């Protein structure tokens, strides 16, 4: 256990040296590449305005997303009614989608427990 702690400390020291050496240039490069997204002047009032714009834009998009949801649900109902005419390829795609959803659920559970598989910290 102590050897792992020493190893972790050395890795953390290497990472902090790398950040100290290249962090400033990376930060400046990142800002230069994305300067079209930076609001000038960068004030708290501007941040409040942008957050309100985001909130109300998201609220305005709800009716469109609501309609898209019901269209998607209607097409799923139609597929279920005509399931006897369902091709093997379509059933395979649906099975893969269900498997992918289950895998994302399992990954989320593992992440939520702090990347442990048993739920206990080792």
UniProtKB/TrEMBL annotation:
It is found in: Mitochondrion membrane. Keywords: ATP synthesis, CF(0), Hydrogen ion transport, Ion transport, Membrane, Mitochondrion, Transport. It comes from Salix dunnii. The keyword Transcription regulation does not apply. This is Mitochondrial ATP synthase subunit G protein. GO terms for molecular function: proton transmembrane transporter activity. InterPro entries: ATP_synth_F0_gsu_mt. It holds the Pfam family ATP-synt_G. GO terms for cellular component: mitochondrial membrane; proton-transporting ATP synthase complex. Belongs to the ATPase g subunit family. The keyword Cell membrane does not apply. GO terms for biological process: proton motive force-driven ATP synthesis.
């Amino acid at each position: 256990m102590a050897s792992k702690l020493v190893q972790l400390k050395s890795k953390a020291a290497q990472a902090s040296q790398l950040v100290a050496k290249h962090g400033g240039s990376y930060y400046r490069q990142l800002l230069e590449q994305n300067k079209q997204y930076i609001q000038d002047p960068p004030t708290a009032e501007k941040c409040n305005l942008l957050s309100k714009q985001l909130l109300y834009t998201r609220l305005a998009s709800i009716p469109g997303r609501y309609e898209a949801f019901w269209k998607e649900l209607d097409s799923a109902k139609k597929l279920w009614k005509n399931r006897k005419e369902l091709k093997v390829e379509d059933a395979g795609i649906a099975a893969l989608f269900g498997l992918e959803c289950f895998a994302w659920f399992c990954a989320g559970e593992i992440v939520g427990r702090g990347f442990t598989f048993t739920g206990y910290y080792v």
